[in-house]
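Q: Convert this sequence to structure tokens.
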Amino acid sequence: MKNYIVPIFIPHMGCPYDCIYCNQKTIAAQQDVPSPAQTIDIIASYLHTMPPADSVEVAFFGGSFTALDLAVQRQYLEAVQPFISGGRVTGIRVSTRPDYIDDQRLELLAAHQVKTVELGVQSLSRRVLKASSRHYTPEDVVRSSNLIKSLRMDLGIQLMIGLPGDSYQQDMETTRQVVQLRPQVVRIYPTLVIAGTALAQIWQQGKYMPLGLAEAVMTCRDMYIQFQHEDIKVIRMGLYPGEELRRAGNILAGPFHPSFGELVEQEIFKEQAQQAITRFRRQAGMLTHLDLYVDHRDVSKLSGPKRWIINRLCGELGLENLKIRTLPDLGRDWIGVSRSRTRRVELILTRKAFLSGFVPRLIAGGILGEEQGAS
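A:
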């Protein structure tokens, strides 16, 4: 069975500031904020159509939940309690700001079965936070993260790349610092220029340049693999491509792609496949006809649209024929290699083994330097 989220969007509720990039009513695809009574109806509607699950969380997204008045927080939390006591919901997840976390707020959350608190951190650079009108410091992030974990709640960290004043090097430094906080989950969002935001104004004035799609994908790749290497789960990359967000005129600029996370994972599978093939050819010789094996759920990540990954591997490695085959029951994120048509795997490279070699080179700067030199 699976784990499910019942999303309750409260766009901009509790937010004390207007961040430079934010138009939550566009991002959340709704303008009306549900009342606590309406929240009950939303949860019931989701549960009515939901298949059996190992866990079901009600998640309050889109605003700064703990910045709401305590009485309002309590009303929303109490709306969920009948579903928890009835065994149909296992817990609650909230999203908020790092500077609106303290003992009193967390005690209220803990008393109402909140299991996860996600902090909209975005960056741990003072310069980037100031330029983005976030109004808190890296120290606030560390303090709030430690408070959340002290109450044995799961910690989530939401990050953004490509904000004003940001850089690849700063994203890597933020990643390093977030790893030290040991969150359970991370989300990574490339910055988009959304109509109606302060960022849109400075972009139109030529004072801001968003990341290109390829640059955003590679930056997220390098962040993702460091988190995965540290057993920190990345649960989303890229904004959810809702109807409102994709409406003509809402996204003015920036690296938007409806399957952004898939693009990132394809880049990782390409690197892993290249290393697996290189290792195999050291043992078996410079063969030009090979088979790659993956779990059936990972075929699209290894192939890519129109087999671009396979075609690129053939071009870069001098291969004449490279086919993808599947094997069941070995889990995910592994790649096997064999001579063509042998129908058995001769070498397997797990994701853990791949990362053990890739991540130290990345942290040392070797990967970035190699790719810049090749471009």
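The domain at 266-358 is CATH 3.30.2320 (hypothetical protein PF0899 fold).
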